[in-house]
Amino acid sequence: MKYNIFDKAIGIALNLSQKKQSEFINLLDENWFQSNFHKNIYQSIKEISENGGVCDLINITTWLRENNRIEKDTIYKLSMILTGVEFHETLNKEGVLNECYYKHSIRKVLLMLQNINSEMQSADPRSNFILEEVSKVKDLLSTNKSIKETTNLDSIKEVLFKHDQAKLGIPLGLELGWRVLKGNLILEKDDVMIVGGRPAMGKTAWAISLIRNLCFNENKVVVFYSLEMAHDRIIRRMISNITGIDSNKIKYGECSDNEINQIQALKNSKAWSNLIVFDGSHTTKDIESKLQTVNNRDKGVDLFMIDYLQKIMPSKSENRYQEVTKISNDVKRIVMAHRIPCIALAQLSRDVGRSGKRPSLPDLKESGEIEQDASIVSFLHRPEYYGEETDDQGNSLEGFGEFIVAKNRDGSIGINKMEVKLATSEWNDTTTENPFYQEQEEKINYSAGMKQSTEIPF
């Protein structure tokens, strides 16, 4: 069960000590809550705490019954919130309060804008009314209602909590689902990851494989912005990836009866609800608006992906470097504002004369500030595309690709060998041990023009 911000506020109140419970509930405002469920729980906690009582499940249930405010699923939802809100959420209670107020403010702004629009469309618009409503919107948005920021002590507690979680084998962020990357690459909520590649390297195929890993294998919710490929083509490639049926056979009507039955069976998978695809042209404002709408659903969003970054429409016409810089900065801002990690694909130049066939960080230098905004920069490379048949040890490169981690703020860098099947949009772990990682780390640093290290500075 995914918890919205108001669930978290109630959960924090219920998990605090009696003294802190009263302090916290007084920082909340009943008007911030939209549903009767949250308003009723808020009222019960407030009244019980003011009377010196203990706000547990039994006392709250009793209060709700006595005040005729109990509904069909109230007890179940309350018990799920009570046990489901994690300890680290209580450490960030100020942030939760700020977010509750922000959600409330947005609802009020939307209502004011509806009033303004309605008045402007009337036969005789009242200018005074419109000016008053505009002034209210301005005042609401400029009011500083923020609660105090998280303290250093809060953050230390959070660090120790995450350490203990990691010690128990619980990842502190989102793993990508490939064995070769496990333990070396984890996305936290404020991370932007860039996956760059030259044309025909299989960037979209890699993204399709990641969606399979997360949505179908891990039950994670992914929002995918496809800026150069239609919705049905993305789904066709997803079907090909999962069933192993060549996508061209699906495209040209060459599937056997058995293959059609496989597709029909896949159609009924509940995992499709974990994937939300938006196609067509988008600005960063469009991306944020749609992401916020989806994130307000019951399950929330675990990751959003963009295919690809340079295809995002600029808000105004500037030189290309400035446009891409602004787009990159906006994507980072969206991640920080909504605490949802992003993976953005990036197109690299076909020109291999300057930096060689294998891409490296200098290939991003002409693409705005992409590298600076990203926590992780990686590249996709298929040596066989350039006619390279074997590696340095004489092993065949047919059907293999390299997932290159060139920058990783909190992990290792290196080259990871993977199996690639573009006909079915697959990037998979190799079936044998992967010796590439440590052997190729020095080459990565050399190609970036830097000394060997576990992290490339930016």
- Major sheet characteristics: 9 strands, mixed
| N-C termini distance | 38 Å
Any idea what the radius of gyration is? 26 Å
Principal-axes shape call: globular
Tally the beta strands: 11
Low-pLDDT runs of 5+ residues are 434-458
The topology string of helices and strands comes to HHHHHHHHHEEEHEHHHEHEHEHEEEEH
Helix share, percent: 40-55%
- SS class: alpha/beta
Number of helices: 17
Strand order of the largest sheet: 5-4-6-7-3-8-9-10-11
DSSP strand content: 5-15%
Return the average pLDDT rounded to an integer: 81
Entry keywords:
single chain; 458 residues; alpha/beta; nine-stranded mixed β-sheet; two-stranded antiparallel ribbon; 17 helices; disordered C terminus
Gist of the model:
The chain is built from 17 helices and eleven strands.
How would you describe this structure to a colleague?
- By secondary structure, the protein is of the alpha/beta class.
- It is 47% helix and 13% strand.
- The protein is built from 17 helices and 11 strands.
- The protein has helices at residues 5-15, 18-27, 36-50, 57-66, 74-84, 87-91, 93-120, 127-142, 152-167, 203-217, 231-243, 247-251, 257-267, 284-295, 320-338, 370-373, 436-447; strands at residues 174-175, 186-187, 192-197, 222-226, 275-279, 303-307, 342-347, 376-381, 400-408, 414-421, 426-429.
- A 9-stranded mixed sheet has the order 5-4-6-7-3-8-9-10-11, with helices on both faces.
- Strand 10 (414-421) and strand 11 form a beta hairpin.
- It is globular and about 80 Å long.
- The protein starts with a helix and ends in an 11-residue tail after the last helix.
- The model is unreliable at 434-458 (pLDDT under 50).
